[in-house]
Design goal:
With 279 residues, the chain is mostly helical. It folds into 3 domains: 53 residues, no CATH class; 110 residues; 64 residues. It contains 11 helices and 4 strands. The strands form 2 sheets. It has a two-stranded antiparallel sheet with strand order 1-2. Strands 3-4 form a two-stranded antiparallel sheet. Helix 9 runs parallel beside helix 11. The N and C termini lie far apart (78 Å). The relative contact order is 0.10. The model has no long low-confidence stretch (mean pLDDT 81).
Length: 279
């Protein structure tokens, strides 16, 4: 016997009224009085009252003007690196010769410190300033290190160029990230909020695995943990669940970044060893 259709069934809550739709969450039929829409889906009144039903509103409250992992990674990481450059780097350049080089180097580091701290403070202009900063620091790296390459200068030059290439990739990921946009107050519609729920909030394993894979581009020895989390996150995805459990794209991108990170992070640290006086 085929299941009843909304045209022949009665409302689960009001038995004297004809059903017009079926609930996308529980499957019950609901009449015109009970029909409600959440995330472009029809749900009954009982499901709409559940605290986990309206995940769009929940998502908006969780992410609006609140820092995400990329804010901390870029803001704190960039500020820390520029602080190191201001202290150790300026001394090394002074020993290598040329006060002009030191001035350029210190000016670039101070500019970076200013931009990164404002990025951490969620100043909207800082999102764009990151790309200009990367161009400035790449120019300084070429002007300071590329003359008379050899030994320590060559290691510094290659390390600086590699850092800026990775930084531009990281800034681009943050620029297009819906979670990062919400942190800086960019207006997002319900469809974008649903996508954000699926990719960033519904599946913490996939989300964290992707972030660790990004971190693994510059920090060695995190690739194994990123791999385990991405695989677990991929197994947890269930688009038919309510609320839907996404994260498939984050997990797959994370898995694709892990081999690259295994090479780039160790190479960066190997290139930095002569600068730090190790090895």
């Amino acid at each position: 016997m085929p299941p009843p259709s909304p045209s022949t069934a009665s409302c689960a809550r009001h038995s004297d009224r004809a059903a017009v739709e079926g609930c996308a969450r529980c499957g019950d039929f609901c009449c015109e009085l009970c029909v409600q829409g959440i995330a472009r889906r029809t749900v009954c009144a009982a499901c709409a009252e559940r605290p986990d039903a309206d995940f769009i509103t929940t998502t908006r409250a969780l992410v609006a003007n609140k820092r995400d992992g990329l804010c901390y990674l870029i803001g704190c990481g960039g500020a820390l690196i520029d602080l190191v450059y201001l202290t150790v780097g300026a001394l090394l350049l002074d020993q290598q010769g040329g006060l002009t080089y030191v001035y350029w180097f210190v000016l670039s580091s101070l500019t970076g410190l200013f931009v990164f701290l404002n990025y951490l403070a969620l100043k909207p202009w800082a999102r764009r300033a990151l790309f200009g900063l990367s161009g400035l620091q790449l120019f300084v790296a070429v002007a300071v290190f590329s003359r008379e390459l050899g030994g320590l200068r060559s290691a510094m030059f290659l390390n600086a160029v590699a850092q800026q290439i990775i930084a531009l990739g990281l800034y681009s990921v943050a620029w297009f990230s819906k979670r990062n946009q919400a942190a800086f107050g960019v207006a997002l519609d319900d469809e974008a909020m649903e996508a954000l729920w699926r990719e960033a909030l519904s599946n913490r394993d996939a989300w964290l695995g992707f972030r660790l894979a990004l971190l693994g581009l510059v920090v060695p020895a995190v690739e194994l943990l990123a791999l385990l989390l991405c695989v677990q996150g991929l197994r947890r995805t269930d688009p038919d669940h309510w609320p839907p459990i996404g994260g498939r794209r984050s997990a797959l991108i994370g898995l694709s970044l892990i081999p690259l990170g295994a090479v780039s992070s160790w190479w960066l640290w190997a290139a930095a060893m002569p600068i730090l006086g190790v090895g």
